[in-house]
Each structure stands twice: as C-alpha cells, then as structure tokens.
C-alpha cells in the first residue's frame, strides 16, 4: 500500500511556507514493520538520503520502531525532524556539511527550497 502525503513546514522556521510531498510505502506486514517514507522530490536535509528516503530512528525496525506508533506520530516526527536535524545520523553529506559549517547558508538554501515547494491553495 502507498500513501501520498504532504508535510507543511512549521511556522517560524526556514521550512515555513513549503509543502513537502512524502510517499509512505507500507509492507504487507505493517504495523510489524515500519513504512518507508520518501520525499518526492528529495529534500536538501541532513537526514534525507539523496534518494529522498527519510533517515529517522522512529522508522527503523532495529532502533525505535514499535507497532503501536501511529501514522500521525510518524508524520509529526518527520515534520519535527525538518527543523531539528539529527546530526548524529546524517544521510546526505552536502546538507550535513553545510548545516554544521555554515548555518546561515543552510537556512538560505532551506528557505529557497520552501519557496520552490510552496503550498498552493
């Protein structure tokens, strides 16, 4: 089963105004295993692989996944991750490096990305 979702950028963050398309891919054994969550198109973010796949411990069977975790919790966790990257678990070298070395440049790129992915009513 595949779901198409949109994660809005939180107000007061560089992500504000963007609507980020996310595909959730559920295996047949869900909720025993977590869905794969993938931004389409991929985002510039330290915890998003170049393929668009989200790197979040909540979605990792070997880390924090539990069958009781709801879709709402997953989506809110991903929304929180946008503005609060986990620099201990980088998935995208360029975004990680810029985030760590030049926060102003990182936020500039994120704001440009938000404008490019602005929600249309």
Care to describe what's here?
One of its GO terms (cellular component) is chromosome. One of its GO terms (molecular function) is ATP binding. The active site is at residue 55. Keywords: ATP-binding, Nucleotide-binding, Nucleus, Transferase, Ubl conjugation pathway. It is globular, with a radius of gyration of 14 Å. 26% of the residues are buried. 30% of the residues lie in helices and 15% in strands. The chain contains 3 helices and 3 strands. The chain has a 3-stranded antiparallel beta sheet, with helices on one face. It has helices spanning 71-83, 93-101, 103-116; strands spanning 2-8, 19-25, 36-39. It has a single domain (2-116), classed as Roll (Ubiquitin Conjugating Enzyme), CATH 3.10.110.10. It is of the alpha+beta class and 121 residues long.
Low confidence ranges: none
Query: Distance between termini?
Result: 27 Å
Main sheet summary = 3 strands, antiparallel
How many separate helices?
3
Give me the side-by-side strand order of the main sheet.
1-2-3
* Form type: globular
Tell me the β content: 5-15%
- Quick one: CATH superfamily? Ubiquitin Conjugating Enzyme
Order of helices and strands: EEEHHH
Question: What would the CATH topology be?
Answer: Ubiquitin Conjugating Enzyme
CATH class: Alpha Beta
Helix vs. strand class: alpha+beta
Number of strands: 3
- Oligomer category: single chain
What's the pLDDT, averaged over the residues? 96
Family: Belongs to the ubiquitin-conjugating enzyme family.
Pfam families: UQ_con
Active site: 55 (glycyl thioester intermediate)
InterPro entries: Ub_conjugating_enzyme, UBC, UBQ-conjugating_AS, UBQ-conjugating_enzyme/RWD
